[in-house]
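Figure 6 in text form: structure in, sequence out.
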């Protein structure tokens, strides 16, 4: 005799599932999975558990699994499912549901979960007999990472979970990696011809290339052709940012002037300004590599479509002989010279903002801002090495951190992604630490973004994960107010909707949840906190960094200008 829970657990184990992120009430399924040798990380909110699962899917290249209760558990977990859909990451959400003979009767936590998840998934199904469970799970698991990656959902009714089955239930074996797809040789030919004729070619490396682990092939392409490359936020590190052909610091110029763009695993959506004017040269010829034919020509007509698995397509380009890869001449190409010059200028600007010229006393006593705080972190921690994984969220925090912190290798940086989801940081950091047990996870987050999921500090403490969370605290969303401006705004009844309570002690939440906390208001305090937190081996650490609340730009709110006028 076997139960549906055991069949589920044995199937997942056999398919290769090593860890499940979730929250369970009556833990029959979770306990069966643990008994089958699968690690279970129990979260405090399904939202973070599902974020963890989709991040694990991105990092591992296999579906990240999330297990929740039905009804509200599925609704909360939908956050990660939708995030996986928008980012095209493989994920499998499994939830319990009401007994098959109670459907429609107003059962406990009843929801038509198959219907609810269907628009956000590649596949959503419900077995109605124990012996069907392996087939449904295998289909969902496979569908999540074969073809274009994305989320899937499986519903397991309560009577199946607890039910007994006496016959033989064959358990599916582990699946081989997704079959590789090659691009049409004629299109390879056309792509190389376009590149041969380009004066200002540009490679854009997206997170699809990171996901596909195309690190070596893209490096080979770039080295052989001398074509400059621009990583998207999560394409960073695939070729180290420090590479001389990286033009991340000259992004605007590169996009505006490139005449041929080789787009590798990146979509022409808002992140790349829809591939057109004014931010991208509207006359540029575009060669697009993607696994999904339906992605080709979205928002901008491309000139050559290379549909296939990125490492394979790059190999086709790298090894073609007639025509072969062109090579830009570093000493004669004005394109390369101009970009290199621009990169240098912009890097110097950033460097000056991080390390302004000031007396040692000023540097020690002055309030920090984004750049000066990041400058301290950059010197204190080995950020640009493969020892560190960067998790980044929060609007300004993420934007500015992206330009300050170089990334040393592929898949070492995760952020709010295509969906611009704030609140992913804790789930992502936990997933990253589970996937990379010997690396340090450094999460650089805004105060608002951190607030979405701060309770997951308890999850991290319970799991013994030494996450290093640096909260860049400016008392608000985008920016907040100083203590006295806040009090005045309360009194005048004109508190902006983006303000948060000044100087909230996020560090103390860490202490209360079994972690460690530091409050840093200036350079020496931040340096000391980073040193002590870096030495921590088992507990999550929160460094709450108070920065100037005014934000990086002049405050644009009418109320602010009004109060300034009054002054
Ligand atoms: P970015 O945010 O870096 O611009 P996107 O998420 O917009 O990246 O785009 C990634 C693209 O990569 C998606 O369109 C996806 O279909 C594609 N992709 C994912 N895996 C592969 C693969 N193995 N081979 C080719 N393309 C892939
Ligand atoms: Mg903030």
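Output sequence:
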């Amino acid at each position: 005799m076997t139960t549906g829970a055991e069949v589920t657990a044995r199937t997942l184990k056999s398919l290769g599932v090593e860890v499940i992120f979730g929250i369970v009430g009556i833990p029959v399924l979770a306990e069966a999975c643990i008994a089958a040798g699968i690690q279970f990380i129990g979260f405090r909110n399904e939202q973070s558990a599902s974020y963890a699962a989709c991040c694990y899917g991105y990092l591992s290249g296999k579906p990240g699994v999330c297990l929740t209760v039905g009804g509200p558990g599925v609704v909360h977990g939908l956050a990660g499912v939708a995030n996986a859909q928008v980012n095209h990451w493989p994920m499998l959400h499994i939830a319990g549901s009401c007994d098959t003979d109670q459907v429609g009767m107003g059962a406990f936590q009843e929801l038509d979960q198959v219907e609810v998840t269907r628009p956000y998934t590649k596949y959503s199904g419900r077995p109605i007999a124990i012996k069907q469970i392996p087939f449904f799970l295998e289909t969902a698991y496979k569908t999540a990472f074969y073809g274009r990656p994305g989320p899937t959902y499986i519903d397991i009714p309560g009577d199946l979970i607890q039910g007994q089955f006496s016959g033989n239930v064959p358990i599916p074996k582990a699946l081989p990696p997704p079959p590789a797809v090659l691009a049409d040789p004629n299109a390879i030919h056309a792509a190389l011809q376009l590149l041969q004729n380009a004066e200002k070619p540009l490679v854009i490396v997206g997170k699809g290339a990171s996901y596909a682990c195309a690190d070596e092939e893209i490096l080979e392409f770039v080295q052989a052709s001398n074509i400059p490359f621009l990583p998207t936020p999560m394409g960073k590190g695939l070729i180290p940012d420090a590479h001389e052909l990286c033009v991340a610091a000259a992004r605007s110029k590169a996009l505006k002037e490139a005449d041929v763009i080789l787009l590798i695993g990146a979509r022409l959506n808002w992140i790349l300004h829809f591939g057109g004017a004014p931010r991208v040269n509207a006359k540029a010829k575009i060669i697009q590599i993607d696994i999904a034919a339906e992605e080709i020509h979205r928002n901008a007509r491309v000139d050559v479509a290379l549909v296939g698995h990125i490492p394979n397509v790059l190999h086709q380009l790298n090894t073609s002989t007639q025509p072969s890869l062109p090579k830009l001449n570093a000493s004669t190409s004005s394109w390369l010279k101009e970009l290199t010059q621009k990169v240098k200028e912009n890097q110097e600007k950033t460097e000056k903002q991080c390390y302004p010229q000031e007396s040692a006393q000023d540097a020690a006593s002055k309030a920090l801002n984004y750049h000066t705080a990041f400058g301290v972190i950059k010197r204190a921690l080995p950020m640009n090495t493969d020892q560190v994984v960067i998790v980044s969220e929060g609007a300004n925090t993420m934007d500015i951190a992206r330009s300050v912190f170089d990334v040393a290798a592929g898949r070492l940086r995760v952020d709010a992604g295509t969906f611009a989801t704030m609140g992913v940081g804790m789930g992502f950091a936990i997933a990253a630490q589970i996937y990379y047990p010997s690396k340090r996870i450094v999460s650089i987050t805004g105060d608002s973004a951190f607030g979405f999921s701060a309770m997951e500090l308890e999850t991290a403490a319970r799991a013994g994960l030494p996450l290093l969370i640096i909260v860049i605290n400016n008392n608000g969303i985008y920016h907040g107010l100083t203590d006295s401006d806040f009090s005045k705004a309360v009194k005048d009844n004109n508190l902006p909707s983006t303000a948060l309570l000044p100087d909230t002690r996020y560090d103390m939440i860490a202490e209360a949840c079994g972690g460690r906390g530091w409050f840093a208001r200036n350079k020496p305090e931040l340096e000391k906190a980073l040193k002590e937190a870096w030495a921590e081996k088992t507990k999550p650490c929160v460094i709450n960094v108070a920065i100037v609340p005014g934000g990086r730009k002049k405050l644009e709110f009418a109320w602010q200008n009004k109060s300034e006028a009054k002054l």
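Caption detail: The chain has 23 helices and 19 strands.
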